[in-house]
Specification:
The protein has 214 residues and is an alpha/beta fold. The chain contains 8 helices and 11 strands. The strands form 3 sheets. It has a 5-stranded parallel β-sheet with strand order 3-8-2-9-10, sandwiched between helices. Strands 5-4-7-6 form a 4-stranded mixed β-sheet. Strand 6 and strand 7 form a beta hairpin. Helix 1 packs across helix 7.
Length: 214
């Protein structure tokens, strides 16, 4: 019997990037609450666990030698070193999720996105979140934390550099209203899930519909 239920979906890798203060974290939390087929990518790190952090849930905690060995063996989709600690996305758990039809959400910057694109472009969907204005971005940075003035100015300068990479992304969402932005990202997710390249078994299903197979 030619059953549409036999058309299985390969998961996708969804990247959200933005400058600090544009609302990426809020949008990510809402997506994870609303999309049961979406799971957050778990990174590996060489830094020690902080109180309350769990192995395999917050991070995979690795010794530096093991981390570097995995880098040499090509076991990371992306990796970077920040303040003497290394972070990376192990390829194995992500591939397992994709093969089971789960989508994986990534919170990485433009450099991490470039690395992911180099390793798994066909599975990748990238979205850059922009603030509605420079003034609004500065307002959000000032109201969300009690940072010193020099820190805020540094973040504003860094934001301009990060936003210059917007054209490297598949989609752009201008975050005027969080609820509307979440709906826009969900619409992108729905459309990308329906791409024929991600629907395994579709070819055979259509062949039977056309009378060319059983």
């Amino acid at each position: 019997m030619n059953d549409p239920q036999n058309i299985k979906r390969r998961g996708l890798m969804l990247v959200l990037s933005s400058p600090s203060g544009a609302g990426k974290s809020t949008i990510s939390r809402e997506l994870l609450d609303r999309e049961p087929e979406l799971t957050m990518s778990v990174s590996a790190t060489t830094r020690p666990p902080r109180p309350g952090e769990e192995e395999g849930k917050d991070y995979y905690f690795l010794e530096k030698d093991k981390f570097h060995e995995m880098v040499e063996d090509g076991e990371f989709l992306e990796h970077a070193t920040v303040f003497d600690n290394s972070y990376g996305t192990p390829r194995g758990p992500v591939n397992a999720a994709l093969e089971s039809g789960k989508d994986v959400l990534f919170d990485v910057d433009w450099q991490g996105t470039q690395q992911l694109a180099g390793k798994a472009r066909s599975d990748l969907v990238t979205i850059f979140i922009l603030p509605p204005s420079q003034d609004e971005l500065e307002r959000r940075l000032r109201t969300r934390a009690q940072d010193p003035e020099e820190v805020i100015l540094k973040r504003m300068s860094k934001a301009a550099s990060e936003m210059s990479h917007y054209d490297e992304y598949d989609y752009i969402v201008v975050n005027v209203d969080v609820e509307e932005s979440v709906r826009e990202v969900q619409a992108i997710l729905t459309a990308e899930r329906l791409r024929k390249v991600r629907r395994e078994g579709l070819y055979d299903f259509v062949r039977v519909l056309c009378g060319k197979g059983e």
